[in-house]
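Please predict the structure of the following assembly.
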Amino acid sequence: MKKFQVFGAETPEESQRERNHKALARRVAAEGFVLLKNDGVLPLIPCKIALYGPGSRRTIKGGSGSGDVHERHSVTIEEGLKNAGFSFPTTKWMDNFESKYQADIAAWRAQVEKSIEHYKPWDMIKMFDTIHEQPMPYPSCTPVLNEDLTDETDTAVYVLSRQAGEGTDRCVEKGDYLFSDIEIESLKLLSAHYKKLILILNCGSVMDLSILDETRIDAVLFFGQGGMEGGNSLADVLTGVTTPCGRLTDTWAYRYTDYPAADTFGHRNGNLIDEEYSEGIYVGYRWFSTKNILPRYPFGYGLSYTSFSCTADSIEQKDTKITVKVSVNNTGSQYSGKETVQIYLQKPDGAIDHEYCALATFGKTPLLAPGESCTLDLTFDLAELATFDELRSAFVLEAGSYTLLMGENVREAALCGTVALDKERIVEQVSFIGTNELLDDCKYVPSAKAAAALERLTDREKIMLVTGGGVSISAYNNVMGAAGSTTTKLLKKGVPNIVLADGPAGLNVTPATATQRDGTPRFPGGLPDEWKWGWLLKMEKLVTAKPGKGRFAYRYMTAWPSATLLAQTWDTALLHEVGCAIGREMVEIGVSVWLAPGMNIHRNPLCGRNFEYYSEDPLISGKMAAAITNGVQSVGGVGVSIKHFCCNNQEDNRIHVSSNVSQRALREIYLRAFYIAVTEGKPWTVMSCYNRVNGTYVCNSPDLLTHVLRKEWGYNGLVMSDWTATCQCSHAQAINAGNDLIMPGGREVQKALALDLQNGVLDKRALNMSASRVLDLIFKSYTCKDF
Ligand code: BGC
């Protein structure tokens, strides 16, 4: 029996797979950018441009935290534009900024060093915690001054950047959600000096753009976080190689306070224990359109270099199933382009209040040359948009006339037809979420292989199986840098471990390792450059392989554009393609479960992790998650973990906060996205979240994990906890509730579970069921096929 196996390329040079996936990442980012404003200055012919702003040279390719990716190389905006033939008479400004950046980093490192100097080297975890509490600040911006202006060009591009990530929400403050004074002053100066001024927003999520009301800025592009090819993709769009076709999946308000529950969200009202979802179903555009609040840029909005006409040729109704045939014509004369057709549904006015309209279906055309047309068949079922009637605890479709609206965005959507229901339909009767009584009648039928393996295990071993592998250095499957593993201790019992790696911007693993004869991975050429400082450097010897010793493995993964950008393509076929590419990378490097897609709803623009999620709308979120899931899982032997189920819509105090949400909003908005992903994507696993819903920790909730997910939706896969989530509540109750795998695991969790099994708190049937699901997950993995 092999003790361990190693996946990954044996030599470090760039592979054909890397080149192919880079090309795909470049195309996806270019199609995910949204052109917000263009007063005729774009596209540009490659020329001299005055380039400024922190993101020009220090382009942020993705957010921080678990979703980071250690790619081989990221193309910055400066580099991408240079590759396309642009040149910059303003390198001095960028050099100055770079010096400030380096000085800021040095100051931060010095401060970190000071805060941990009293720790001993073996206090590693404590040191990590202390360091985590003081993340590297993204350097504040350097002003553009008169001396930085040039007369060599009449065109300036300013790249504004923001970083955000796990654990912290954004703030409505200058330099964060608002532009800083330096940014405002710099843009004013540029506007006065240059004939053409283009603003590039290199940030994960919505920003306040009041600057546009005060200062002439000719074009604005939401670049988001474009992944490792972002700079090249931007050049493609700015030069017209790619006609912009991304559309917003969120509403961009004039003022932060225009958003629902703006003043009570997260830290805003000082209450981080209870988060009241007082807006109910009126999230995002549902709020803006119902209250008739004019947003700066509505949901679905995005400009192109060409124009299209869309005509609904026919609407067919078979009971509640609707098909709209739409002809789309590129009416421009110069640029080929793609159009996104959006159809919204307006419900009849009945007994239950409802939103002005809701996205019902959408479709993206292929590339259409000027004058070219195509037809799209857009289908949906009215039942998918049924109203949740809390009094009857049922999804209902009220009788009456349903209006279909079509348009370039939610605000411009206009009547394209009506369909009618002669009588009310009860689509589905469901139960109340929140009683949280354990279910007695839940069953799971394992595969014959899993059932046989389970037979061989003692209770103690089953407990090991339902807790993750913790921090384990040697394992059958071992991918350094991956977030987790299943237990590594049952190899002799015929149960290998599998590896789980983050998501969602790619695969977050260590790119180069040398596995030693005992199976432990080390860094081949010393620590990665960004770790070569201070106390970390002191450990370098311990974790570095002897020159030439060990089995080398190289895992250069693709850093994809952020999830929001992926969704802004409105192209499920493209997301499927990205999913296939990620699946192939998993097979290449020995990862079995991708801890993604992230699919929480953008309830408020301040959520620090919005960039990891798709949209404020559940349909777009669910469809995108299903598409990428189907892509990954079509590769065979690898699967995903859709996360974080559910209502993890803020980062501040994410491990304790209770999302207090009505049954209706839960059903129509927050669960709906997951429902679509579960039923259309059949993900291998679901990750439960840290937070509570209506007072109950989700990882301890039988209602959500078993009743809704398994009984109502027919989900047959595994549920894992988010990392250490069960430490806030009960490990045993998690298993009883249907949370099969407790991550990241470790001895303490096992001890607690063993005790709870003894004293009857941990249900033995639940333990068997969860252990069987873990076994089935392991045996499905391609990394265990030769075992
Ligand atoms: C995050 C998850 C992630 C996990 C493993 C958690 O802190 O919330 O999204 O998958 O860590 O890294």
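The domain at 34-243 is CATH 3.40.50.1700 (Rossmann fold). The chain has four domains: 34-243, 296-385+394-429, 453-510+558-784, 512-554.
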